[in-house]
Design goal:
40% helix; Nuclear Transport Factor 2, Chain: A; alpha+beta; five-stranded antiparallel beta sheet; elongated; 169 residues; 2 domains; 5 helices
Length: 169
């Protein structure tokens, strides 16, 4: 079986096509990076987070002030999943605590028992107000108690980000 040797112009065409292909790939990569950078950096864009219950421990007390909003959400639900109601309650704001006592909070969680022992958490940011309140909606699920949807708001206080409202539709 013999092959016909390619002429110099055929090789040039293949080299140009390969080069053009590489340029297209690089441009698409830069476009994707730019899109992620510019849209991903905005707080008013809805982002969905799907996570298994984290194995990490989150700081409590004064150390909790350094947590970002996403870490506060994950810490709050991890503590509920592990029946650490007092720790979860301490992540709530002063105004929340003024409206719901620790005992009422514990009863609310027991009534919506899918928060207890949940294995997965799926939530999205639904916006941010001009005063900096971050809004979330999601669902905790995967445990023996089924799933439960929720709405949550966080506000920045002197002690860091705190759960301002927490409800089940």
């Amino acid at each position: 079986m013999s092959t016909v040797p390619k002429s110099g112009s055929d090789k040039t065409i293949y080299i140009l096509l390969a080069g053009a292909g590489m340029i297209v790939v690089v441009c698409l990569g830069l476009f994707g990076w730019g899109l992620t950078y510019f849209i991903g950096g905005r707080d008013d864009v809805t982002r969905t987070t799907r996570t298994k219950r984290p194995n990490q421990t989150f700081p409590t007390g004064e150390g909790a002030a350094m947590l970002n909003p996403d870490q506060v959400v994950r810490a709050f639900f991890k503590e509920l999943a592990e029946s650490q109601f007092e720790d979860a309650y301490m992540r709530t704001s002063v105004s929340f605590q003024g409206q719901m006592s620790q005992n009422d909070f514990n009863e609310f969680i027991r009534k919506n028992n899918a928060f207890i022992g949940h294995l997965s958490l799926n939530y999205s940011t639904t916006g941010q107000t001009d005063s900096g309140i971050k809004k979330y909606k999601g669902k905790a699920y995967g445990g023996e108690n089924g799933g439960v949807s929720f709405s949550l708001e966080l506000s920045k206080e002197d002690e860091g980000w705190r759960v301002r409202t927490f409800s089940v539709p």
